[in-house]
Each structure stands twice: as C-alpha cells, then as structure tokens.
Write a structure and sequence with these properties.
mainly alpha; globular; 70% helix; two-stranded antiparallel sheet; single chain
Length: 355
C-alpha cells in the first residue's frame, strides 16, 4: 500500500527522492502574481488609456503622433485660441466652429511635426533613455510607413487649411518650412527652442486672420512674440530632462546653453512675455479680466521658476506640463475681457442717452 502512495522523483545531483503522489495530483498549478484577481480597474478616459485600448497595429502610429501625450497639442492649440478670442467682436464669445476647426488642425499638425521629428531623429532617439521606445527608434514601424503616414496627416491638415480664407491659406502654408526644418536646428544651434517657438505660435497670427481676413499687426505681432517667449521658457525646462544624454550624443539645446543660469534666462523670458501681453491688450482695448489673467500668469510663472529643479527630470516634466494652465488662463482672460467690453460700452452710452 505504501508503494502506491509514493513514487520517485529526481532530486539534487540526479538522486531520486520520494514525494507523495496523491499530494502532487491534488496541488493546483502555481499562479503568477499578476494573474491573481484584484479589484476592477476604474474606467479611464485619459489619452494614454485610449491609445492603449486601440487595436495593436494602430498603436505605433498613435504613439508616433504623440496622442498619448496631449500636452504638446494643447501648447500648439492655445495660441490659436488666444488669437481667435481677441478677434471676436466686443461683447461676443469666440467663434466656436473656428475653435473646433483649429483644434482638429492642431492635432494633425502636431502629429505631423512629431512624425517629421522622429524621422530625422530616429538614430538619436535610440541613444536617449526617454525616447528609446518611440515607434521609429524601437523599430515598431519603418521609415517608409512613417512617410506614408506623414503624407496622410498633411493631406488632412491641408483640407482643414482650405476651409479658411485665401489670406490664411497662404499664411498657414508659410509655416510648413518651419515644421520641416525645426528638427534639424538641434544639430547646428543651441537655440532650437527659438525655432520651435516661431513654429508653435504661428496660430497667434493665423487665428486672427481666419476671423478678420488679414492680420492686425499691432495686435498679432506682440501676441506672437509673447508666445515665442513662452515656448522658450517651457521648452528649455523640457530640454533639461535630456541634457546628460544630449551632451553624449552631441545634440544642442538652450538647456545646455544656459546651464546653471537657466532660472535667470527663464525670468527674462517671463517678463518679456508679460510685457508683450500687456501691449497686446492695450492695442485691442482689453479690459480688467484680461489684465487679471495676465497677472495670474505672472504669479504662476514666478512660482514655476522659483520651485524648478533643473536636475530632476520628473520635476522638469511636471513644470513643463503645467504650462497648459498658463495658456488656459490667458484664453479665459481674453474671453471674459471681451465680454466686459460690452459692459463698458453700455456705461459710456448711458449718459449720452440721458441727455
């Protein structure tokens, strides 16, 4: 009977040891820790979750256009909203269909810009920890596939542009040279962030012309300049994440140019941005809510710069993403400032009516 209950098994150094056969038969197979049941995951509608939920073959293309990191799209889109808001008639809300159209265009053009950037930088990206898993650098898609995908994005963006007036079509097309050449700037100058600023804030010109039919340069130029200063600020912070890798592979940036003087430079960019926003407000007769928003932006930027730790990549990323709040604050101030104009005009007209 004991022979039925025991059978040999191979043990240490090839010797056979006895173990209970019935116990082995009854024991369940081991389960991996990640397979154990747990509480259900809450539903999430974040961009990253939506990309992960997409079909597998589609995910590399969505990651190539950075749909899982929408903050860049916001930073491209918000200068467009500023300009569209400023171009609205006194007492009126911004043109919502135009805001929606520019939103679609921002998604497409940011995606196209990221595709171009990754096509230029695929060899560099493989050497940088933060970018090594990008689809082109990781080999998830080929350069040819990326080129075809880029053509599709630019074709759709052209359809959006063709919905605008002729002046805006020409003005929008002029920005394409900046989109294509920006990724090359980090190879030849320590100021690629300046070129990015010229590119990312083109909407500050285009939004006004889309509403008015042409640019009012006394308003659009200081607004554009403010946006460029803003981009220099947030993208310098962003560049500090990769400065160690950039030194090794020979890529240039304002982070490497400014080094320990970064906070002084960022303070200068902030002051230039705030001054330009004030000039913009004066030239388009903005009101109290607008200047309140500019003051709030100044406080936000001061706190951002004061608490920044340029040697901690996670803090640099946190400060970089917080700049979406800056853009939203300004848009809110523009909208309420424009609505306030109607109140001011009534206060001016009332005494005339009482005469």
């Amino acid at each position: 009977m004991a022979a039925l209950l025991w059978r040999p098994c191979r043990g240490f150094l090839g010797l056979r040891a006895a173990r209970p056969a019935l116990a082995v038969a009854a024991a369940p197979p081991p389960r991996r820790a990640d397979a154990l049941p747990g509480p259900p995951r809450p539903l999430s509608f974040s961009a990253a979750e939506l990309v992960r939920a997409a079909p597998g073959p589609l995910q590399p293309y969505l990651r190539l256009m950075r749909l899982h990191q929408p903050v860049g799209t916001w930073l491209l889109y918000l200068p467009c909203t500023w300009s569209i808001g400023l171009a609205a008639e006194p007492g009126c809300l911004p043109d919502f269909p135009m805001l929606s159209l520019f939103g679609v265009g921002a998604v497409l053009m940011r995606g196209a810009g990221c595709t171009i950037n990754d096509m230029w930088d695929r060899d560099y990206d493989r050497k940088v920890t933060r970018t090594a898993n990008r689809p082109l650098a990781a080999g998830d898609i080929s350069t040819f596939q990326s080129f075809i995908f880029l053509g599709g994005q630019l074709s759709l963006a052209l359809c959006v542009l063709l919905c605008l007036n002729y002046y805006s079509i020409v003005l929008g097309a002029a920005s394409l040279s900046l989109v294509i050449t920006y990724p090359l700037m980090k190879r030849i100058t320590y100021w690629p962030q300046l070129v990015l600023g010229l590119t990312f804030n083109w909407g500050a010109l285009l939004g006004w012309s889309a509403i008015k039919g042409s640019c009012e340069w006394s308003v659009c130029l200081p607004l554009y300049f403010a946006g460029v200063m803003w981009t220099l600020l947030y993208d310098t912070i962003y560049a500090h994440q990769d400065k160690k890798d950039d030194i090794i592979i020979g890529v240039k940036s304002t982070a490497l140019r400014f080094r320990e003087d970064t906070k002084q430079w960022l303070s200068g960019f902030s002051l230039a941005m705030l001054l330009s926003l004030c000039i913009t407000g004066v030239n388009c007769n903005q009101t109290f809510p607008y200047y309140s928003a500019v003051a709030a932006i100044g406080a936000h930027l001061a706190h951002q710069i004061y608490t920044l730790d340029i040697d901690k990549p996670e803090d640099c990323w946190k400060k970089f993403t917080s700049n979406r709040t800056v853009g939203v604050l300004l848009f809110t101030g523009i909208v309420f400032g424009n609505l306030w104009k109607q109140k001011d005009s009534k206060n001016v007209e009332e005494p005339l009516e009482n005469r």
